[in-house]
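<goal> How does this chain fold?
<body> The protein record starts here
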Amino acid sequence: MSILDYSIVVVYLLGMVGIGLYFQRKASRGISSYFLGERDMPWWALGASGMSSNLDVSGTMINTAFVFALGASGFFIEIRGGVTLIMAFLMIFQGKWNRRALVMTLAEWMHFRFGKGRQGDVARLIAAFSIIIVTIAMITYFAIGSGKFVGEFLGIPDFMGLPSQFWAATLMIGLAMIYTVASGLYGVVWTDVFQGILIFGTIIFICALAFFSFNLPETFQVSVPMRDGTFMALDTTREAWTSVWPSWELNLPAESAYSIYNLFGIAILFYLVKVTIEGAGGTSQYMIQRFFASRSDRESGLLSLFWTVLLAFRWPFIAAIAILGIVFGTQSGVIEDPEAVLPIVINQMVPIGIKGILVAGLMAAAMSTFDSTVNAGAAYWVKDIYQTYINPGASEKTLMAHGRWSSVILVVLGLGFMLLINNINEIWGWITSSLGAGLLVPTMARWYWWRMNGYGFAAGTVAGMVAAVLQRLFLPDIPEYFSFMIATSASLVGMVIGTYLAPATDEKVLLEFYKRTRPFGFWGPIRKKIKGEVMEKINRENRRDIIATFFAVPWQVVLFLTGMAVIMKRWDEFAWLGVILLALSTGLYFFWFRHLSTEVKVTD
């Protein structure tokens, strides 16, 4: 990069640190301020922050890799996580269900659901430790992607026997740590809002560059990674590459690392099932923290809608980067490593000055995801382990200190594990389809099955995560749907055994939970004890939410694909996608949007 580009990046980094330090005093009032912003931040800021947090560099690099190598069909692989399809469920019902608990973390929520006795304590501790483990894995994932990206531009050499990617990731994460540790969620949200503006400008420029300045040739080459670390060039056509309608089979070489997706139709169905389970069960970490911090049911829905609409611009950007990568390949030879397409395109095809803005924008994307994850992960140590079980009488000053030190420790562990992973897809596939899968069944059942108790949640979570670790050690190369089945089956068995070996949760706890949360599912014994007029109101809300979800999930997929069709200039596909999008939006309005309200009021 030029001196101008470096100057832009430096100004951006100093600006981020400055914003974070500005909010330090406000965040230091106590852990409620530090982790939830006193539940007084506007919905649009929380939504914009959520978008920035989802648009990480690691995810953008792997998503671009799939679209570059497989064309528009690569989008469907990222239904596993990169499409963030869980937003449809959060938007319709999961966001407001979580907000109604008025808790700070998912682990604290376990006391709300299972009571404050022993089973609630066991569930809370297991939830806290499991989410801390997932947080460390996510930091590793972010570090690998940001290390690859930043290393491409800064030219950092290997040092002390450690690769340049490690030092590049350490540099950027270290800078993000300054404002994250200083200002908590206040700093996270408001730096994310600023970063979101920069990211949005980046997206607009790249999309305009690809749309107006370049056209794909009729035939060209792409590249796929091989299991032995090499790469293979493959021939394709513009018609096949730009088709948003996926094939049932991919027919990639058996030696390819992407050959696990050859049974493409089955893979897509598997990802849809996985996302449905995940969405119906809700989420944890930084995503759910935005809903815990929201002011009302209505604002919970509005922040989700805004978040999703902003995320829709990510996929045209990814398609544009992939197109520029293909054009560059026709001029200089095909780009071998699909995961390197993003940094190579910016380095080779973007002019001086603009390059600095783009690098700063994508560094913003990396830092916004990282800071949210670390802040949310630290809350589980402070609120759910230290304050609750180690030092209940701790002062706010002590708790704030633990919040900051636990953030640092999580990052150090995540950076350490980075040295054991070879590429982004390797760690992302394991997180989404194995480690995270071990949490899905008990996380979902806690909402819909009255008989499930805290021991069932704990046993299911431990069994699933142990199975995920064993799979990683002994069966690292199996397809993702097999690793998913191993983790979820172990989790299901553990949950059922743990539930029936212990008595049900106290009825008073279940009644309080049900009346405030109002979930649907198997709650017959509890529903019978609630007045008829109240149950009628709950049933009406539940019916609307279930119907609206059937509109929201395809609406989000079609919304994202429509933007890709524009960048790929597939006007035939854009036309029918537009018609479907209009029909789904109409259904979503009548069954969900016009019913947004603050009618469910809960107080501390």
